[in-house]
């Protein structure tokens, strides 16, 4: 699908970059006809729109990229470490289990509610395998705040950590349609281990939803009123990813650096329910084969963070 662009991130740029005019000149070459990041004009909903000719057209195409990294370490939290192979195998098995247990259909809304955790990431990609719309929810919401969004988004399934699973049930979501990780589990919610199928689900095929269908639905914080849903399509995510990759590549080339990078390791303290952590960090990391490290669940502790960094 993708002609040969290489994944770089802003973390790989030097502190001193080339002048903007030089970066723009390189970017024009990279996005010209035949370039690694060629831009073409396509008709989208009746409007001519500039878009990348070779791009990810569905969120699950990033899974295909990630699976190529095999045994490279992807997720780390305390003593728990998952390779790319293990992560996506678990995500596919969870997808298969959710499909069998709940008859999840393409386009259904699957919410993820919890602090940063290995299984938060697994749940995100499981929802993508189901061709569902992933709905990351603010882990700090009260039951009252959560109740509005659960109804507004039309949530079918909630995937949550043990604490927030209880909050979801208190907000009115059925316990039997709430799948959770961690302990202690309350209100009769389903343990994630019981939702995993023995065999993994395949990725969506040619009948998957379209590029301009919603892939992820984020909600605003609601500080001045009710939270508002902000859907992002598969095209939004693929184009945003390539925008970042192309710009960083241009900056590195103009500054006299190569575009190849070694593996990056990020201590991810930005909440995964925020688009910055999910789309600007996790998705590019999957494509590039980098590692994400999470702190233990609970309030931020600078001493523990320092030990993890060391």
Descriptive account of the structure:
By secondary structure, the protein is of the alpha/beta class. The protein has 10 helices and 13 strands. It has helices at about 20-30, 60-65, 85-100, 120-130, 145-155, 160-170, 190-195, 235-255, 275-290, 300-310, and strands at about 40-45, 45-50, 75, 80-85, 110-115, 135, 155-160, 180, 190, 215-220, 230-235, 265, 290-295. A 5-stranded parallel β-sheet has the order 6-5-7-8-9, sandwiched between helices. The chain has a 4-stranded mixed β-sheet with strand order 4-3-13-12, sandwiched between helices. A two-stranded antiparallel sheet has the order 1-2. Helix 2 crosses helix 9. It starts with 19 loop residues before the first helix and ends with a helix.
């Amino acid at each position: 699908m993708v002609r040969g662009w290489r994944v770089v991130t802003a973390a790989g740029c030097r502190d001193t970059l080339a002048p903007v005019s030089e970066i723009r000149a390189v970017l024009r070459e990279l996005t010209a006809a035949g370039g690694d990041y060629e831009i073409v004009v396509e008709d989208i909903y009746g409007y001519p729109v500039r878009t990348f000719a070779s791009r990810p057209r569905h969120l699950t195409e990033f899974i295909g990229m990630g699976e190529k990294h095999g045994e490279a370490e992807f997720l780390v939290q305390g003593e728990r470490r998952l390779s790319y192979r293990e992560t996506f195998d678990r995500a596919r098995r969870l997808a298969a289990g959710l499909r069998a247990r709940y008859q999840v259909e393409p386009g259904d809304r699957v919410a993820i509610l919890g602090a940063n955790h290995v299984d938060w990431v697994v749940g995100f990609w499981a929802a993508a395998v189901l061709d569902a719309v992933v709905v990351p929810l603010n882990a700090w919401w009260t039951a009252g705040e959560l109740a509005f969004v659960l109804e507004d988004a039309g949530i079918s399934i909630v995937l949550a950590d043990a604490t927030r699973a209880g909050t979801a049930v208190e907000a009115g979501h059925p316990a039997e349609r709430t799948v959770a990780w961690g302990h202690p589990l309350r209100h009769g919610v389903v343990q994630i281990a019981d939702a995993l199928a023995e065999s993994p689900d395949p990725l969506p095929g040619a009948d998957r939803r379209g590029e301009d269908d919603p892939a992820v639905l984020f909600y605003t914080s609601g500080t001045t009123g009710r939270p508002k849903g902000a859907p992002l399509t598969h095209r939004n995510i693929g184009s945003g990813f390539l925008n970042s990759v192309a710009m960083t590549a241009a900056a590195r080339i103009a500054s006299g650096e190569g575009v190849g990078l070694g593996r990056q390791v990020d201590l991810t303290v930005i909440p995964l329910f925020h688009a910055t952590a999910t789309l600007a960090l996790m998705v590019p990391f999957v494509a590039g084969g980098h590692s994400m490290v999470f702190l233990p669940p609970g309030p931020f502790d600078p001493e523990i963070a320092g030990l993890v960094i060391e």
